[in-house]
Write a structure and sequence with these properties.
Blueprint: E1 2-7, E2 19-24, E3 31-40, E4 43-48, E5 55-59, E6 63-68, E7 72-73, E8 91-96, H1 100-103, E9 105-113, E10 119-128, E11 135-143, E12 155-160, E13 166-170, E14 188-192, E15 214-217, E16 221-227, E17 234-239, E18 245-248, E19 288-290, E20 296-302, E21 313-318, E22 323-330, E23 333-340, E24 348-353, E25 359-363, E26 368-375
């Protein structure tokens, strides 16, 4: 159930002026949802700038915008590379360098056109100008090769770990066998230094039959990744086909099964041709999976002080189910699952926890929105 309100203050939201809010019941109390930005063109990802400077938002059609509480959405930021924006391709993830305060580097992942109508995922960084209007000296550090996609399954998410390594979670370009091919970068998690160099301790360094960038393989279309703040481990999630969406904790050199082992079937209802069932010797089982696919996208662990009831939760967006999924964690185990925002009927593409402790969500497609979500404080 929901209620629409128009208030200048509700609980701890502290809004500067009267705005339309919505209330929803949840297991942890009444949650309050505020639309803080509208009119986004297929928003895909956001990254918060330090010192309450706002957030960078990618639009799949190729724009990077700045959102600020006081001024709303900026004009497109200059210096963004040209993207392949057909079908699922476009401008995808955005993250800040761990040492952004020193170098102002902003990392982007995006689909890049290749030959014969094919495309692949590319990652690079630029220096954000002091006036926040442009990315300067954009430098490509990674290209998914060979380029095989005709418009689908690019992934991709970017995560820096506590040691400063950059993980890139990739899709398999809808070319299933490539996930198992170690000489290709489709369906992989790769691990790099921030400048694109390959770490000497990557699992396939020195193997002439494998790409040294690879960290793990056997993935389908990864559209969520985040660092577990308590364990320091990388968590990822990926779309299954029809069923079989899954969460993984990728380990060095491990095979996560696709397409040899899956809990899903083809969209036609027929079995995946390469699949040998839900288990295959030599492959890892998912940490968690859905037999019926929510079509998951974006993920964020909640480790802020503002809403203690959400501590040790993992938030994930759902595209097909049009919901925000909250998973309850006990250590690394997922012990509960709740659906939020179902009454809004909006696809959830990304979710992040802001520096203020609120949960921020990118929703919708052609008329996308940035939502701010909290628990009503009595």
């Amino acid at each position: 159930m929901l209620a629409v309100l128009c208030l200048s203050l509700i609980g701890g939201l502290g809004l500067a002026q009267a705005k339309a809010l919505q209330e929803f019941n949840s297991e942890k109390g009444t949650i309050v949802v505020e639309e803080v930005a509208t009119g986004l063109d297929h928003p895909w990802s956001l990254a918060f700038l330090p010192d309450a400077s706002g957030a960078l938002i990618t639009e799949k059609s190729g724009q990077l915008r700045l959102w600020r509480e006081s001024t709303g959405l900026s004009d497109p930021i200059a210096g963004v590379p040209e993207v392949y924006s057909r079908s699922q391709g476009g401008l995808l993830d955005v993250v800040l360098a761990p040492d952004f305060a020193q170098n102002r580097h902003v990392y982007l992942s995006y689909a890049e056109a290749g030959e014969q109508g094919r495309a692949g995922t590319t990652v690079g960084y630029g220096r954000l100008s002091s006036d926040l209007s442009s990315l300067e000296d954009f430098t490509v550090i990674f290209r998914q090769t060979p380029k095989l996609s005709t418009g689908t399954h690019f992934g991709s998410r970017l995560v820096f770990d506590k040691q400063g390594y950059l993980f890139i979670a990739l899709g398999e370009n809808n070319q299933r066998p490539t996930s198992q091919n170690l000489d290709k970068l489709q369906g992989k998690v790769v691990r790099l230094h921030p400048d694109g160099r390959i770490p000497a301790d990557n699992p396939y360094v020195g193997d002439s039959q494998a790409r040294p960038e690879i960290w793990s393989y056997g993935h389908r279309n990864q559209q969520g990744a985040a660092l577990n703040p308590w364990s320091g481990q990388l968590w990822t999630h990926e779309h299954g086909p029809r069923g079989g969406d899954e969460i993984n904790i990728p380990q060095a050199g491990k095979n996560y099964g696709w397409p040899l082992a899956t809990y899903g079937v083809n969209y036609s209802g027929l079995d995946i041709p390469e699949a040998e069932g839900t288990h295959k010797q030599g492959t890892e089982q998912p940490h968690y999976y859905w037999k019926v696919s929510p079509a998951i996208s974006g993920m964020a662990f909640y480790n802020a002080d503002l809403f203690p009831a959400w501590q040790h939760s993992l938030f994930i967006g759902a595209l097909k189910e049009q919901a925000l999924i909250r998973l309850t964690l006990e250590n690394d185990q997922i012990v509960g699952e709740e659906r939020l925002l179902e009454d809004r009927d909006e696809r959830i593409r990304d979710v992040r926890v802001g520096p203020d402790g609120y949960v921020y969500v990118l929703s919708g497609d052609g008329k996308g929105k940035l939502l701010r979500i909290g628990i009503e404080q009595k």
